[in-house]
Amino acid sequence: MSTDTDDETTNGTDASDGDGDGGHCATPDSDGEVAEEIAIISFERKMETAADIVDGIGDRYESIDVIEYHGDVFAEHWGEYDCFVGLMASGIAMRKTAPLLDDKWDDPAIVVVDEELTWAIPITGGHHGANQVADDLASMGAVPAVTTASEAAGKQGVEERAKALDTHVVNGDSTVATNLAVLDDELGAVERLDGPRAVLVGDDVTVLKRNGDDGVVLGTGSVSGAKKAQFLTAWKRALDGTEYGVDDVEFVATGTRKEEEEGLLAAAEELGLGVVSFEKETLERFEGPTPSRSKELIGWPGISEASAIAGGREHELLAEKERYDDAVTVAVGK
């Protein structure tokens, strides 16, 4: 890690990300769960590395600006960005942002990275964009030093589930209890409730609200080792048989036994889709109409149809499963 000094005499200047508008002041994403507008705060001597970051991951965000460091730079731009990437020693970022922190749901995420892009360290807002940015920096060789409990345990926290489901958390304070349940394997599947209806919940119930009013779910299964291209082709062909396109897909659904399929995850990432995996017990409740050999062989219902039905807000099957390239099965749920 670099050992920068806290130089407070340098004037702050904005460098545009190539759009020609300079000094961009973005409005952060309202749900506070993903990073869309990024600011890289860099010392002048590290601007080349900052430019490399823009070139490396800039196309993954709505905007990514580079701002030269000065003593009040964080305070000056606080609230304008979803995430600050501090190209500096972690101590500087911690000292300069600590007095500005107010509420984890409203504060921007903060990640620090060294000049050699060896480490990407989320300091605050891990579940609200910092882990996401650190993971993106990993594509440039940085090691993401993620310390949030659910990710460290290899489990999907509530905020990550919300992101995958294309929803946002309504009552943020509840996530302390529900993420503890995630760590103890006690939370179970996200329950879906359609209205109009009145619901009474306790403080340990996290409420997720969908970001869109309409959309479909791609339920998918596969043989082990299916390739990204096979998933992409299968999903496109499945949607071609409906009136919906990729932009209408809320998320990809599958079973927990397929949640680590590299091809599936890579295909979903390329399309910007979240992946939600359902336990066997949940899929059994929503078993589809098409017979599946997996039930005979391993006791699981057909993953593609069951996950499409389970994931859809109306729990309806829009398109029954089809098999592509003897590798990937897809069903469309609504």
Account of the protein in words:
This protein has 334 residues and is α/β, with parallel strands linked by helices. The chain has 3 domains: 14-147, Rossmann fold (3-Layer(aba) Sandwich); 154-208, no CATH class; 216-333, 2-Layer Sandwich (Nucleotidyltransferase, domain 5), CATH 3.30.420. The chain has 12 helices and 14 strands. The protein has helices at 47-57, 73-77, 90-97, 130-138, 149-152, 158-164, 175-183, 228-240, 262-271, 280-285, 293-298, 303-311, and strands spanning 14-15, 37-42, 63-68, 83-87, 109-113, 119-124, 143-144, 167-169, 208-210, 216-222, 249-255, 275-278, 317-324, 328-333. The strands form 3 sheets. The chain has a 7-stranded mixed beta sheet with strand order 1-3-2-4-5-6-7, sandwiched between helices. The protein has a 5-stranded mixed beta sheet with strand order 12-11-10-14-13. A two-stranded antiparallel sheet has the order 8-9. Helix 8 crosses helix 9. It is globular.
